[in-house]
Write a structure and sequence with these properties.
Hypothetical Protein Tm841, Chain: A,domain 3; 38% helix; alpha/beta; 280 residues; Rossmann fold; 2 domains
Length: 280
């Protein structure tokens, strides 16, 4: 009997983990067009549509039926599973997984209290635990404890998409654009929170480095992951160059991922993010 690690499609992981994790898709809508995230539309196509479309896309939670389909396969194989979902404060996907899991034994659902690469580093940690032979129940307990140490910090390039989604006023978005404001956000207790603002990309990168240091430092013995939104990783490349002293002595190459459609919908292209476990 093996332990499977299952996530929803809002979870981003590094390239080397993608074949070791099963994914349940959320649903995307561009106007009246419906897509299953990661199944009938990939990330690159999503960002092309995001840039080209006048309509802001919407996302819908994964349903209990979608989870049940995967759980039936787990049960039929005699396996167990740990399911790690995006924050229950941001989506109903966690509740959907819990509803589906009620009919099965040996399936454990964990609320990551995070999203995207934040959930991703937890999933990578869970994969490592599973490959070390730990049972699903122990892995679920460990992931629940370790989620308290996960830190996600992101620098946004534009306020335009937050304005389109009604998250900020047109006046604030206009002022931010004129002043070239780059907000820095984190995920705190399962919700997105603003923790700083900078003028320009260089100052934004410096602020991102400062906020990572203020968090208590990076535990390099556990997964670390960088992410970006949009069609080009150029802004992430610039951030890595500007923050080299953070990573140079610990990592030869920093794993990275294009961020999920849930994040892209709300922040637009040009965001740069880091996820890691804080030092204990």
């Amino acid at each position: 009997m093996s332990v499977r690690i299952i996530v929803d499609s809002s979870t981003d992981v590094g390239e080397q983990y993608r074949g070791r994790i099963e994914v349940v898709p959320l649903t995307l809508h561009f106007g009246d067009q419906e897509y299953f995230d990661g199944v009938t539309i990939d990330k690159q196509e999503f960002y092309r549509k995001l840039v080209e479309s006048d309509v802001l896309p919407t996302t819908s939670q994964a349903t209990p039926a979608m989870f049940d389909k995967v759980f039936r396969e787990v049960a039929a194989a005699g396996d167990s599973a740990v399911v790690i979902c995006l924050s229950s404060k941001l989506s109903g996907t966690y509740q959907s997984a819990c509803i589906a899991a009620e009919d099965y034994e040996n399936i454990y659902v964990v609320d990551s209290l995070s999203v995207a690469i934040g959930t991703g580093v937890l999933a990578e940690y869970a994969v490592t635990c599973a490959e070390q032979g730990m049972p699903a129940s122990l892995i679920a307990n460990l992931v629940t404890k370790k989620r308290e140490d996960v830190c996600v910090i992101a620098l946004l390039d534009t306020l335009e998409y937050l304005k389109k989604g009604g998250r900020i006023s047109k006046t604030v978005a206009f002022a931010g654009g004129v002043l070239n404001i780059k907000p820095v956000v984190t995920v705190s207790e399962g919700e997105v929170a603003l923790i700083g603002k900078a003028r320009g990309s260089r100052n934004g990168n410096n602020l991102l480095v400062e906020k990572i240091r203020q968090s208590g430092g990076v535990d390099f013995s556990l997964p670390v992951l960088l992410g970006y939104t949009g069609l080009s990783p150029a802004l992430l490349d610039k951030y890595v160059e500007d923050s080299r002293e953070l990573w140079a002595d610990a990592l030869e190459e920093i794993p990275r991922s294009l961020l999920c459609s849930v994040i892209g919908t709300h922040v637009g292209p040009g965001a740069v993010a880091a996820a890691f476990f804080k030092k204990g």
